[in-house]
Specification:
2 copies of one chain form a homodimer. Chain A is an alpha+beta fold. In chain A, 28% of the residues lie in helices and 24% in strands. Chain A has an 8-stranded mixed beta sheet with strand order 6-9-10-22-21-20-17-11, sandwiched between helices. The longest helix of chain A is centred in the N-terminal third of the chain and has 23 residues, at 137-159. Chains A and B meet through strand 1, helix 3, helix 4, strand 6 and strand 7 of A and strand 1, helix 3, helix 4, strand 6 and strand 7 of B.
């Protein structure tokens, strides 16, 4: 390297005019303007115009061979641009560099796609040439924001006396929920490590060890059949505290969010965040992670139909089911076609169907209005507080939570379609008091709704044997504009209670000991009350960056089938490697 | 939890006397002092004495059941201790808490070993009960230092415009040097991911993408037959920069070290650090990572013996070998037994033998002195500048570097044994100009001394085909008190050069394309000159903490055979898990 960089391409302004500088970067653009050759030189920090004048003879001839994405250093004098050439959109737009010397570090083939911010090529092609895709300003800005969020997170938690402690990646396979990625051991034939789905047990052990306040920004792994916005490896902000209750964890998290939004985005959040119980959240929004940026709340009307003649509602009422509505003034003008499509869409989401009633000029019409008795109509008006024209959507089902969930889907769908969601609004709230368990039809047993280390609300303890499904957990989720960005709980810290929960999950005592014996043993040597939370870091950054996909906030993401297209992984390995691992591949 | 903590056990002083406080922690100690019950309560922040008085009736009776490692919260009033009870060794030693209320969160069985700083139990037992071992103040302090070093590292590099960018853990298997840990893919039967041995190729790709300055504190993995102070997973501070040469990387690293030593340990380092070439380092110290805290340098005396009659030396000289000495005044009194033992020890390290000559009263005696001609003796005195009595140790071997290495071992051994190494001295220096290649007898080919992405010194380029072993790399190691704590290089950034090096390493073009095709492709789209360095983070912390073992700076380390004794990993997995991975275990 002959030329040593003195400035980045983003920092030069009028105040450097007359200075000799060296800048280094990529040719973003070149223009042969009748005898003068221009390039825009680009680096991570910005862009700057460089002028090669024919007065410079050889240098000029050399410059004319420059093409897009060549890597060069240029020595030259900073000069003011002529008035008419000023580019007000560029921070360096008032100046340019008059080149005196050029060093070409590398040439470039023509990239397979343009490195503009809105590229119209398949994502697969972008992922294959990720080194080029990552040159796009938008992706660079997103990764810079990710860096900032990570550093701010560490700054905040360190400042609050949390210690970042690294937990192992070669851990023990304890599949509960998702599948583990396994790592065969060479030194111990037939045995395996597992990559951690989360550092849960280790962070609890750290509390037993007295570290009091722990955090970590850490990779976790789940071998799932991938959904659109999931990755086999993902990053978590993991937090755990001792001698705390729900409020303590929530308080520190609220302080963290306030700090992060302010420092990263200059947004002021108001704390404390609202708290909604799981039950209230379902009743009002049909989901445990409602988008609270807009109203359009669910209203139950089951009791109004207790004597209905309308067969479908009647059977729902008789089965102890649920009838709920969404009142949507903005949809009052919906055509039959639009209503049909909405009905079909909700059926595709699993619903039995979507009923509607149009309310105009204080009268019900269309849809199922013909089944409404006068008495029922009056009750409906009163219950729903109908004062303006509106479309009333109705879902009825024997399964209350299911019907609410369908209305929740509809609510989100309409919220978006009807532009009810205000832009640039940041709603954070907590969902609390989750059920401890949910019944898995697939496994024919209760599974833990959060994870099996979640403790039980004191006042529900008496239900644990008789009505376990009614037991509420000391769990909480943090919701941001309708997205779950963090979830946590107060943990169990006594052996008997942990054994009890394993038993509810139909784990045999042997299995429990085999998998989590070390944790239960640890509880017998002075485990403090403790609790914590974990943030989905990728999703958090995606939301803060307003990125379209989680893959846009990860430098080297995998595809939906867990393939690394750039480096081509997974790949076949040598026979000797397998032999050393005592493994054989089964052909199908 | 009835009692909510108001203060930690380390922060109360005289200025809180009279205040009602709640502290939470572990019973470190209890004493039944004739009617008054005392405990020392311990948390991460310190210890404080709590007094339970019989005046308190029930509370007193309850307190008497407290035992070591019980977890409690205590509400009480801070009071000044009586003059004679003041403990000047404790920051809280002037006060105590007069208990008003006690909440027992958990009891504890008697720990299997005492939680003192110097425990005399097997490391295996400590690792099995790691949750107890980690309660020891010393280990807690070490992990707190580790946290601080990590945060300072991030603070420093962020401040210098480096971006922390996460690279993947599910990468591609490209074993070169150490073995990879493999991760079978479920979605792609017969294919595997590999855990990264380092993020080397990804960080180079980030440079090609224009991120300019990258760092990461990141876990890396090597499936080695473990040596004493190695772990299968270890942490690295990984750094890469664009548009740089050796000096630029060294400068930023020196600035970093200066900052870190000052902030973490309040030690002032002087920069720049001395630079020693690989050759000079071997010639003077017999190693590429010399401990420069003491002298005792090697002196070559081959030419003095060019006409010797002493058969052993004669054959070495004739074979173009090397004869070197260490002159050790402190060892002049060594007995025959001590000299014999030293000889045996060096033979156990691989040497042919260790010769000696005693120099006293300006005369040579003992050892091989009888083979010295008068002329040779005079030359030796002159060459070695002998002015005081000393033992002269001599090693001769046909292989120069081997003989130097043996003298290097001896130098370190004697340095320690003879207390020549000053305490509390911090020597950092660079070793530069490493050979690019070294010949592997085992593989019968050249292997990369650093890694195959290291670029070649311009002035040695002409030797690359004719005398590749003479080619020097643009590589550098950072040495701290005789320990290599970081190593790096300026990288290759052109396809042809990279292909050339792969070829020297006897990689076929197909193999090179298969393994590193994406990197070489990337070099064709405008790769900038770049270079970097990586620190062994665990070792760095170990040295800063003056810890005895690398396992003492890792929260949950593995044993030398890569076993996690606490959680019992690796372990057997379900047949269904293996089936899903299309794998079968081969029985031996």
């Amino acid at each position: 390297m002959k030329l040593k960089r003195t400035h980045t391409c983003g920092e030069l302004t009028l105040s450097e005019v007359g200075k000799m500088v060296v800048v280094s970067g990529w040719v973003d653009n070149w223009r042969d303007h009748g005898g003068v050759f221009f390039i825009d030189l680009r680096d991570r920090y910005g862009k700057i115009q460089v002028v090669f004048s024919p007065e410079k003879g050889d240098l000029y001839e050399k410059s004319k061979k420059l093409r897009s994405e060549f890597v060069v250093s240029v020595r030259g004098k900073v000069q003011k641009r002529p008035e008419e050439a000023i580019n007000p959109e560029l921070p360096t737009g008032e100046i340019e560099i008059y080149a005196e010397e050029l060093e070409v570090h590398n040439t470039s083939k023509t990239p397979p796609f343009e490195l503009k911010d809105y590229v119209d090529v398949s994502e697969d092609l972008r992922l294959k040439y990720r080194y080029l895709d990552l040159r796009r300003t938008k992706l660079q800005k997103t990764l810079i924001l990710r860096h900032q969020v990570a550093q701010l997170t560490r700054q905040f938690f360190s400042g609050e006396n949390f210690l970042e402690i690294e937990t192992p990646f070669l851990t023990k396979s304890t599949p509960e929920g998702a599948r583990d990625f396994l790592v065969p051991s060479r030194l111990h034939p037939g045995k395996f490590y597992a990559l951690p789905q989360s550092p849960q047990t280790y962070k609890q052990i750290l509390m037993v060890s007295g570290f009091d306040r722990y955090f970590q920004i850490v990779k976790c792994f789940r071998d799932e059949d991938l959904r659109k916005d999931r990755q086999p490896e993902f990053t978590q902000i993991d937090v755990e505290m001792s001698f705390v209750e729900e409020e303590d964890v929530m308080n520190i998290v609220e302080k963290f969010m306030k700090f992060l939004f302010k420092e990263a985005l200059n947004i002021e959040l108001k704390t404390p965040f609202p708290r909604l119980t799981y039950q209230e959240s379902l009743d009002r929004f049909g989901t445990d992670k409602p988008d609270t940026r807009f109203g359009l709340e669910l209203r139950e009307v089951t009791s109004i139909f207790k004597n209905t003649d309308f067969k479908i509602f009647k059977s729902v009422v008789e089965a102890g089911g649920y009838i709920g509505t969404l009142v949507v003034p903005e949809a009052v003008g919906y055509s039959r076609k639009e209503l049909d499509e909405l009905n079909k869409w909700l059926i595709s989401m699993g619903a039995g169907g979507l009923a509607h009633i149009k309310f105009t000029n204080n009268t019900f019409e269309g849809g199922i209005s013909k089944f409404l008795s006068g008495h029922e109509g009056e009750a409906l008006k009163k219950e729903l507080g109908l004062t303006q024209d509106a479309m009333i959507f109705v879902v009825a089902d024997k399964r209350k939570e299911f019907a609410q969930t369908m209305l929740g889907f509809l609510r989100n769908h309409l919220g978006e379609k009807l532009n009810l969601i205000p832009g640039d609004v940041h709603h954070l709230h907590w969902t609390t008091e989750f059920p401890l368990l949910e019944f898995s039809e697939e496994e024919n047993r209760y599974v833990a709704r959060h994870h099996p280390f979640t403790s039980v609300k004191e006042e529900d303890m008496h239900l644990i044997d008789s009505e376990p499904h009614k037991v509420r957990a000391r769990a909480y989720d943090l919701i941001y504009n309708g997205n779950e960005i963090a979830g946590g709980s107060i943990r169990i810290h006594k052996r008997e209670m942990q054994e009890k929960v394993f038993q509810l999950l139909k784990m045999t005592p042997e299995e429990a000991r085999e998998k989590f014996g070390f944790l239960m043993d640890a509880f017998e040597y002075g485990a403090p009350p403790h609790g914590g939370i974990a943030f989905g870091f990728d999703r958090l950054v995606m939301l803060l960056a307003k990125a379209a996909s989680i893959r846009d906030v990860i430098a080297f993401p995998k595809t939906a089938s867990a393939v690394g297209l750039m480096e081509q992984t997974p790949s076949e390995v040598d026979e000797t490697q397998l032999k050393e691992l005592h493994l054989k591949i089964l052909k199908e």
